[in-house]
Structure formats: structure tokens, C-alpha cells
Design brief:
With 335 residues, this protein is mainly β. Helices cover 3% and strands 46% of the residues.
């Protein structure tokens, strides 16, 4: 049985935009929308670009009839202009087995926009990688075998190889229960992945007892790859907590540093959450409350960083912090 965790608080170095108010919600979308969250965000050619998950058609129990990926642009990273039509639907993936596409993450590598995403299929959940050169069409590079998702790419090759962080779902081999860890894999061409190894385990994170996995794609700093990750703790005493009959999980955002030359090595890790659910949008209102999921990390010229995160699987929010403060949170694993 998972050990129950105490009340968690966000780090004081993080400052929520307007007290945690959403920067993107269903009211901003010009087509059918119920929940707008888990955005991938980049700064590209002088503007911010946001790919967001859009669920709609709630069945009143615990699922949505449809899910697409939308696209929005911004001059300041706060006020967004949403494109009139969805960016990606299941028809764009090119596989008739796909039933749902969601959870985009954006990374720029060699001035090309790379998109990681998840798809549900009739035969399991898969993670995908695509590229786009015009924000109109995508070219799918690879789809994993089931079950793998929450994939993100480093923004440059390391040792001539692409680097992918991911969270497989080994239910059968873990005794039939949730116990999902973060892994790292490598590729020379974005199509064939291997040299996989465990990167961060649940037991490595004091504020997790159920899952850990990638969040926003890492960014390069002088001290290492600054990396956000998501954590999950489960408490069977939790009740409804949202629109479903029962929601017992809490999602937080953590932060760590990976070695620049060997990103399979963790050189620093915060033992406390970077962001924990606290505001009404994160803890009290929405589809699944007590959820923060980081999807974008944007360094600015003034030494600050924008952090984009989904709240309660319903809206997208933003916070800021000083880069130096974030780096200081990542303490060495060994004194």
C-alpha cells in the first residue's frame, strides 16, 4: 500500500501569474471545448507558440467523447490568439488504429519544431514524435509500442543522438498496480530508439508514491539540463475531487538537473515540489482537482523563466521564477 504523504506546498521562488488565474481556458477557444490543458509551449522566431490539449463532449461520468490538439500564438506569452481550427486530429496521425490524440510537447531542434504527443489506439496507448515546418501539417517520425507516453525531447543532440525522456506503463510486471518511473532513450534519426535506461524512480522523489515522469522539455543551462517533471501521489481516503465519482490522486511539479554531456545522470534534484496544487483552479475547481502538470519551460533574456502548467485537467496556467533560483533548488544527490 502506498505511503500517505503530508500536505505539500509550492516553492516560494515561484510566482503564479495573477494569483494562478488561467492564461488559456475553454472560453478562449473558437470551436467546441470543455477542458484546455497540458500545453506544449515554445518561443519560436520571436513569438510564443502553444499547442494545447482540448477535450470536449463530457459523458457525465469520467470521459470525453473527443480530443484534439489546438494551436495558439502570443507576443507576450500571456495573451493568446487561438487558431480558428484544430491543429491535429486523429486523421493527421496516419494510422487507422488511433482513436485519440493528446498531450502535446514542443521542442525546437536545429530550428525545426518537434512535437511529442500521445495517442490512444484500439491496441494500447502509444507515444509519438512528429515535426512541423509550417504549423499547418505534421510529419510523424515514430510511434512507440504500447504502453508509453509523456515523451519529451532535449532541444539538441547529445553525442550525435537525440535524447528522449519518457514514462512507460509496466503494469503487468509491477504487480498490476501503478508504479511508473521516468526513463531515457536515444536515437540517431527520431525513428529507432534504444539504449534505454531508468532515469528517475518513484522512490527517488520524497513527494511521490505512485508515478514520476517527464513534464516540460528540458532547457540548457551552464549547470546542466534544467528539467521539470511531474509526480503523482495517491491517497485512498480522498473523495470526489472533481467531476468524476472519485479522484484520489495529486499531481505536482518537480525540478532536477541532468548532466550536460550525459543526461542519464542526475546532478541535482529538489526534495520538495516546485509547484503543488494550492489555488482554486488547481485544487478546488475543474475536471480532476489537485492536479498540476508542467508542459512548458521558457527562459527569458532577463534571467527569468516562464513555467506553463495544466491545472485540474481543465485550464492552462503560467508561473515565473528566476533561473538562478530554480538552479539553486537542485541540490546535489551526494554531498
Amino acid at each position: 500500500m502506498a505511503k500517505m504523504l503530508p500536505e505539500l506546498k509550492s516553492s516560494p521562488v515561484v510566482h503564479r501569474y495573477q494569483g494562478g488565474a488561467p492564461v488559456l481556458s475553454k472560453q478562449d477557444i473558437p470551436y467546441k471545448a470543455d477542458c484546455i490543458f497540458n500545453c506544449g509551449v515554445i518561443k519560436y522566431h520571436g513569438q510564443y507558440v502553444c499547442a494545447f490539449r482540448n477535450d470536449y463532449g463530457f459523458d457525465g461520468v469520467g470521459a470525453f467523447a473527443h480530443c484534439v490538439i489546438g494551436l495558439a500564438f502570443s507576443a507576450d506569452g500571456v495573451h493568446w490568439n487561438v487558431r480558428e481550427k484544430p491543429f491535429i486530429t486523429i486523421d493527421d496521425i496516419g494510422d487507422p488504429d488511433v482513436t485519440k490524440v493528446y498531450d502535446p510537447r514542443l521542442t525546437v531542434i536545429d530550428d525545426v519544431v518537434h512535437l511529442c504527443f500521445a495517442v490512444d489506439t484500439n491496441h494500447g496507448l502509444r507515444g509519438g514524435i512528429a515535426i512541423t515546418r509550417d504549423f499547418e501539417t505534421i510529419e510523424v517520425q515514430s510511434l512507440s509500442v504500447p504502453d508509453n507516453r509523456n515523451m519529451v525531447l532535449l532541444p539538441e543532440k547529445v553525442g550525435g543522438r537525440y535524447v528522449r525522456l519518457e514514462r512507460p506503463f509496466p503494469v503487468y510486471s509491477r504487480g498490476g498496480v501503478d508504479r511508473f518511473d521516468m526513463w531515457i532513450s536515444y536515437s540517431y534519426d527520431l525513428k529507432y530508439w534504444g539504449d534505454s535506461r531508468l532515469l528517475l524512480a518513484v522512490e527517488d522523489v520524497p513527494f511521490a508514491n505512485d508515478k514520476v515522469g517527464p513534464g516540460a522539455p528540458p532547457i540548457r543551462t551552464e549547470k546542466g539540463w534544467l528539467t521539470l517533471f511531474h509526480t503523482v501521489d495517491i491517497d485512498r481516503s480522498r473523495g470526489k475531487n472533481g467531476w468524476e465519482e472519485k479522484w484520489q490522486k495529486r499531481y505536482c511539479a518537480g525540478i532536477m538537473l541532468l548532466d550536460l554531456e550525459d543526461p542519464s545522470k542526475i546532478v541535482g534534484l529538489s526534495r520538495e515540489p516546485l509547484l503543488a496544487p494550492e489555488t482554486k483552479w488547481e485544487a478546488d475547481e475543474g475536471f480532476r482537482t489537485n492536479v498540476i502538470f508542467p508542459g512548458g519551460l521558457i527562459p527569458e533574456d532577463d534571467g527569468t523563466v516562464k513555467i506553463y502548467y495544466g491545472a485540474s485537467d481543465t485550464v492552462e496556467c503560467m508561473a515565473t521564477a528566476k533561473l538562478d533560483d530554480l538552479l539553486a533548488l537542485c541540490k546535489p544527490l551526494c554531498p
